[in-house]
Design a protein that fits this description.
It is a single chain. With 229 residues, the chain is an alpha+beta fold. The chain contains 5 helices and 11 strands, in the order αββββββββββαααβα. The protein has one domain: DNA methylase specificity domains (Adenine-n6-DNA-methyltransferase TaqI, Chain A, domain 2, Alpha-Beta Complex). A 5-stranded mixed beta sheet has the order 3-6-9-4-5, with no helix packed on it. A 4-stranded antiparallel beta sheet has the order 2-10-7-8, covered by helices on one side. Strands 1-11 form a two-stranded antiparallel ribbon. Helix 1 packs antiparallel against helix 5. It is globular and about 70 Å long.
């Protein structure tokens, strides 16, 4: 389901802002700019000593390839080095080996690896536009071409943010954002449901294996325990 929603969002994005756009003959109200004109790099550092153990942590290993939906993460327990803080609806862009194409929309606030760029749209109504640009093949390939290092190539904000784009007028930003937001919310809801079911499974399976719970003698409502988010 999420894959279908993502594909639909990317198709609409290309129809609105990529395919058929002639930079030499832009529609009225449009202009040529850069990703830095619609977004910024947020560098809020987090000291491991100041973190609560239940704080959610996202590493590169948690981010799927070619999907904006984050379905896995851990907690800050055991984190020893400095990390970056991020907020819900920030864009997380994996800068280490950018060709792995790891770009997601944060479904919650937390901390992440410093090998991840935390990106924030300059305006709320620019969210869908920015997300679908950063997760596009063109931007990922561009970041890879500008990456530094041979064995462990890394992209950087200065290079990435210089990617040239066609910037639409405000009303089109808003129209497109309103069109895509329901799909992004559905993806987030699906992620929460999957996480709840996973936690429920992890709670019940050991009890079933040990015989602590007898399925034949247990009412369905007794199987559901409070699940921490």
């Amino acid at each position: 389901m999420n894959q279908t929603l993502e594909q639909m969002a990317q198709t609409l994005f290309r129809q609105y802002f990529v395919d058929g756009i002639d930079e030499e003959n832009l529609p009225e109200g449009w202009k040529i700019g850069k990703l830095s004109d619609v977004s910024k790099n947020v560098r809020m550092t987090a000291n491991p000593k100041d973190l609560q153990e239940e704080c959610k942590y996202v590493g590169l290993e948690h981010i799927p390839r070619k999907s904006i939906a984050l379905t896995d993460w851990s907690t800050s327990a055991g984190v020893e080095s400095q990390k970056y803080r991020f907020e819900q609806n920030h864009i997380l862009f994996g800068k280490l080996r950018p060709y792995f194409h790891k770009v997601i929309l944060a479904p919650f606030e937390g901390i992440c690896s410093t090998d991840i760029l935390v990106i924030e749209p300059l305006k709320d109504y620019m969210l869908a536009f920015c997300l679908l640009h950063y997760s596009s093949e063109e931007v990922v390939q561009y970041s890879n071409q500008l990456s530094h290092g041979t064995r462990m190539p890394r992209a950087d904000w200065k290079g990435l943010s210089g990617y040239e784009i066609a910037i639409p007028p405000k009303e089109l930003f808003i129209k497109f954002n309103n069109l895509i937001l329901p799909s992004l919310q559905k993806i987030k809801t699906d992620i929460e449901e999957i996480q709840t079911l996973t936690q429920l499974r992890d709670t019940l399976l050991p009890k079933l294996m040990s015989g602590e719970i007898d399925v034949m003698q247990t009412k369905p409502e007794e199987l559901h325990e409070p699940v921490l988010s």
